[in-house]
Write a structure and sequence with these properties.
alpha/beta, two-stranded antiparallel sheet, 2 helices, five-stranded mixed β-sheet, Double Stranded RNA Binding Domain
Length: 158
Amino acid sequence: MVIIFLHGCKMNYSFTGASIPPDVKTINIMYFPNNASLVAPTLSQKLTDGMRDKFTSETSLDLVNEGGDLILEGSITRYRTSPVAIQGDDQAALNRLTITIEVTYTNTFEENMSFESSFSRYADYSSSDNLNDIQEGLIEEINVMLIEDVFNKAVVNW
């Protein structure tokens, strides 16, 4: 009978694909202020809350207000709508809402896993729609994508 022992770095894995060393217990996710030239009133709070929900519900990390083994901070740098599908009569058939965030992620246990990155996502909508009427739904859709991108870069090691 052959017995093989594997020795190495232990990681805590979750069904979400997150791999976090067992010594990492806490995360501090700071408020993401909206520094874009156009400001949607609810965007900052919804993005911040979404980040906090994602990291606490899909990892074993505890959210802390100061310090933290992992620290996530950033800001919203762009909130922009623009035409994307111009028809023959120079009218836009579709418009695009784009949200860009700058993120600084600090891993106090593994400094080489820290990063500063920009993330940008968008959603298209019909030019016949009034942005004010559909804005909240678009923000929610874009936030889900942005949060997933940040989560994957921060704690999913493929």
